[in-house]
Amino acid sequence: MTEIERFLKYVTFDTQSDESTGVTPSTEKQMIFANYLKKELEEIGLEEITLDENGYLFATLPSNIEHDVPTIGFISHMDTSPDMSGANVKPRIVENYDGSDIVLCSTDNIVLSPSQFPELLDHKGEDLIVTDGHTLLGADDKAGIAEIVSAMVYLKEHPEIKHGRIRIGFNPDEEIGLGAHKFDVEAFGAKWAYTMDGGEVGELEFENFNAAAAKVNISGRNVHPGYAKNKMINSMLVANEFMSLFPADETPSTTTGYEGFYHLISMNGEVEHTELSYIIRDHDRKIFEQRKEFVKQCADKLNDKYGSELLKVELKDQYYNMRQEVEPLMHIIDIAFGAMKEAGVEPRVKAIRGGTDGAQLSFKGLPCPNIFAGGLNFHGRYEFAPVQSIEKAVKVIVKIAELTAHRY
Q: Distance between CA 303 and CA 144 in Å, rounded?
């Protein structure tokens, strides 16, 4: 089975995670996929295969050399985003893409167009895996799983390629920020690892956002509107005042690169109570702390205005920039950089405008930069994955294993 055949099989499993359930894995369907993968890993002859009750699947490809080489790992997540359905995915391959619009569904006029997604033009002449426009594809991160499994098969079939002990790990619930929470780093037993969870071919990432979530609860006072003068406090209007205090040019749609932002992700309210949910992001830890303080200051300003504690802010850190954990071990970046070069891939070192399991794992003692898996437009109906990018990712994994053995 090729990496593409594996990928096309994997996306038939609906593995959406769900942050509301409070259990791990957050959905039983992730465990169904995990059991399928466990059986496949057994069939291809990997060793030390374990699947725990939380849906964490680990396995080992033993070393085929006599001298000691650090154990390294490759990790991907099994879940897909709750943002769009992952059920009944119907992938198809657009061969030798010519740069024109791709009609995903003619009945509903769903079109993947380079006028909206110009990155399509970077893949002219390649074979693109797309959806029918009614689901996401699932390349985030089933492409990563297919690449890791296929690379292990390739190394088993080519014993002339020397490598040390390799651990692979597939975990649930990355899309809801919980993929690393119950990841047993000690049991995984790797010196360092790579998450295969990036996007465009060539991406190599060891910086990510510092991240926090903020919930703002706003209390109001409701009285009959005909007799409300100087009595009513409409919590929705107070919420509007609060939101107006934020800089208009520091949102996801107005920032790029290393620029941080405040992102209002939900609002629910009535006169007596309104709740706002924000996420706060910045690569710079000092500025990140200032952003959190700014949110509290905005609440304090309105509480002072109304002479009452109408606004209450709850802040929760989610993850931190992995750079501080990876930078002292830059040889693991050098190995990945060299592996890409040898695989014919031009490395694109960039900062992640988001986070990965690797960020949290790095702070748990497993330095874990992120490598491209090849998909684009994740989390929606316009997701696609070039066949050639997936194939190149497999080569990069193989080369990392080989270069690690050469280094030691």
A: 48
pLDDT of residue 356: 79
pLDDT at 239: 98
- List, in sequence order, every residue forming a beta bridge with 353; answer none if it has no partner: none
The residues near 3 (Cβ < 8 Å, ≥ 6 apart) are: 146, 147, 149, 150, 390, 391, 394
Residue written as token pair 């100087």: 230
**Which helix (H) or strand (E) element contains residue 319?**
strand 311-319
In this predicted structure, the answer to whether residue 91 has a pLDDT above a threshold of 90 is yes
**Residue 187 scores a pLDDT above 90:** yes
The model's pTM is 0.87
Query: Cα–chain-centroid distance for residue 156?
Result: 29
For the annotated catalytic residues, the residue numbers are 79, 174
274-290 residue pLDDT tens: 999 999 999 999 999 99
**Residues 132, 138, 144: CA angle, nearest 5 degrees:** 140
Q: Do the Cβ atoms of 214 and 242 come closer than 8 Å?
A: no
For the CA atoms of 190, 193, 195, 201, the dihedral, rounded to the nearest 10 degrees, stands at -150
Complete DSSP assignment for 194-263: EEEEE-STTEEEEEE-EEEEEEEEEE-B---GGG-TTT-B-HHHHHHHHHHTS-TT-SGGG--TT--EEE
pLDDT score at 198? 87
CA distance between the termini of the chain: 32
Q: Report pLDDT digits (tens) over 96-155.
A: 999 999 999 999 999 999 999 999 999 999 999 999 999 999 999 999 999 999 999 999
Tokens of 31: 């465990």
**In this structure, which long-range contacts are made by residues 157-162, counting pairs with CB atoms below 8 Å and at least 24 apart in sequence?**
159/64, 161/398, 161/401, 161/402, 162/64, 162/65, 162/402, 162/405, 162/406
Beta-carbon neighbour count of residue 269 at 10 Å?
A: 18
